[in-house]
Amino acid sequence: MKLLFAATFALFVLSVFDQADSSAYDKIVAHSRIRAKKEGPNVCALQQVVGTKKKYFSTCRNWYQKAICGKPTTVLYECCPGYMRLDGIHGCPAVAPIDNVFGTLGLVKATTTQDYSTLSKLQAEIEGAGSYTFFAPSNDAWDLLDPEVRSALVSNVNIELYNALHYHMVNKRLLTKDLKNGMTATSMYNDLNLLINHYSNGVVTVNCARIIHGNQVATNGVVHVIDRVITAVGNTIQDVIEVDDDLSTLSLGQPGHFTLFAPTNDAFDKLDREVLDRLMEDKKSLQALLNYHLLNSVQCSEAIMAGTSYETLEGSNIEIGCDGDSLTVNGIKMVFKKDIVTTNGVIHLIDQVLMPDSDEVMSMDQSFLKIILENHILKSKIVLSQLYNGQRLETLAGKFLRVFIYRTAVCIENACLIRGSKEGSNGALHLMKTLITPAESTMYQLLVKNGAFKIFLSLMEAAGLTDLLKQEGGYTLFAPTDEAFAGLSDRDLSLLKGDVNALRAILLYHFSNGIFIGEGLETGVTNLLKTLQGSNLKVLFVNTVKVPDSDLMATNGVVHSVRTLLYPEDIPVGNQELLSLLRRIIRYIQIKVLNCNMLLQNHIIDLLHLCNEYCFFIYAVHREPTVVRRVIEGPTTIKKVTRVIEGQPSVTTVTRVIGGDSSVTTVLKGKHNLTHP
Predict the structure, then answer these.
(1) Going by fewer Cβ within 10 Å, which terminus of the chain is more open, N or C?
(2) Is residue 446 within 8 Å of residue 554, measured between CB atoms?
(3) For this UniProt entry, which residues form the secretion signal (predicted)?
(4) What is the maximum span of the chain, computed from C-alpha positions, in angstroms?
């Protein structure tokens, strides 16, 4: 029993040590083996990017997305490293024969490297005694090498090719578990270093060349196949680019592990000259700009398989991703040369200058920036609990901002607060959803300046209501644009202006007492607004992103532009000709599916704003016209048919009483062929 316990304990300890020694690369290979278990023993599943020769032991994220760098992949089943197939047997049941390093090059199909080893007289060395690690370029890697460089190597085989191959070797055996992220390994060429990176997604790189087949053990070492030919590195980032030493307390010539996204001279030439001059005069901003292009880690392009956020030395984050073979920064393809390896990191050349928030401020027009700041800073400390509806707050610029308190929002002029206001010893910080725009003109001045409300203003004048737009107060106005009256003749407008009482009632139905900005209306429910006409306006608000025609702030209210005339249900119209005209202006639209993240069914509504941003809907109640009834035996069924021909509504209602229980069917037919069950 003691022997059994001891044996079990020993196995447990060994398994723990084995797990401790495993690396991200080993774990990814193990997952690939599990995915391919139906293919037989020791088979690994790889993803190959469609249209390329690139193959990956991939992460779960890439596997289930069936894509790498946004490009579709196919699944390949191959023998896991170290195993072979046998004819007629399922899977890869055979262990690959162990040979010396030279023989192993042939086993892993790195035959070009094997041939060059013979050509350069390296063969005898890697067949003999020793313990080597050979990072062997694949055949495809040699084909990718610049033809002139390759020709120069091969033509001078006794020196250059031999040295180049020696640079791919380390004089001790290093398995992938020994290749730690950020380490350097001393090569066998002049003791120059190799930069090793071992990423959490299982990718292992040597001078940014990816290991595509690792851990092929040999009698005198190990072979790792890599996807490119690597060249000797002797320069720092500081050496590669021209950087003023005075710019940074961080010297780019010192040891470290950095990634620099280096804008070219052309990239800086794209900047506005005034902005560039301002940056050059401000060393702190220039320092921030440099740090925003630097990561405190080495990110080789081959390790990036999907978008990931990284913190820059400036403190802000940028997203590094990929689109096929292209690297992206914040979703934009701007890297045109990648993986310039240095002794202390890697450089990717970009054709745009990245702007951190601090430098975006520098790039703004300073007079405009001053206005913005003055309008957002109050002369006294006001905390959230001190704000009340109707309060006026004075800014540093001497302007006054109005406070609006709603059931679910607290707003300053057109901007509402985001939860999480902070109080400090010398002030308070309130986060706003948008820039505050203080009102500077009355509703009348605003509508005249806009130029899209000429007909509405003429109707207000005809009804004797122009002073309402000019006088002090706090109103919400749903102002119909000229588009709402499209197709009306001068005679039609004269008819509309002829009944002053009806016109006044209609226009006052567009005004509500109180200032209601978009964010102040609750989403997904009906907001009841009491109009100056006396009836309630039923507003359904769907909020996604703000549009320019909403929340036009005035000193005496707020204006929301709408594209139809509103009509109160309780206004009698005695003039049949005026009634026909109103039916042409007021549009009823059946909404089945709404592209504003909401499904509205079984309502006839008046569409005021339909867009992918702010959406205002106001329920319109259709007044019953004269009804003709014909009674036939049996219980009651009511059918109403409304036909709209060529976009100009005319209404005919036919009611028949026939067999069946009572039900109502409304059909709207016309330009949109929309029906209401």
Answers:
(1) N
(2) yes
(3) 1-22
(4) 112
Where do runs of H (alpha helix) occur along 348-431? 357-363, 366-376
pLDDT, tens digit, for every residue of 254-279?
777 899 998 888 888 888 787 778 77
| Closest listed residue to residue 659, CA positions, set 644, 675, 637 | 637
Residue holding tokens 């119209």? 573
Classify strands 400-405 and 410-412 as parallel, antiparallel or unpaired: antiparallel
How many residues does the structure list for the chain?
A: 677
Phi and psi torsions of 676, nearest 5°: -125, 110
DSSP 306: S
| Whether the Cβ atoms of residue 606 and residue 564 lie closer than 8 Å to each other | yes
Closest to 225 in 3D by CA, of 114, 100, 116, 110: 110
d(CA 458, CA 479): 12
What one-character DSSP code corresponds to residue 187?
Answer: B
3-state secondary structure of 361: helix
The span from the CA of 364 to the CA of 274, in Å, is 10
141 touches 190 (CB < 8 A): no
Strand, coil or helix: 483? helix
Mean pLDDT is highest, among 100-109, 287-296, 638-647, for 100-109
How do residues 207-225 score in pLDDT, each as one tens digit? Answer: 999 999 999 999 999 999 9
- Residue 557's region, left for phi above 0, alpha for psi from -120 to 50, else beta, is left
pLDDT in tens, 435-468: 888 888 999 999 999 999 999 999 999 999 999 9
What tens digit of pLDDT does each residue of 121-165 get? 999 999 999 999 999 999 999 999 999 999 988 887 678 999 999
The Cα 100–Cα 94 span in angstroms is 18
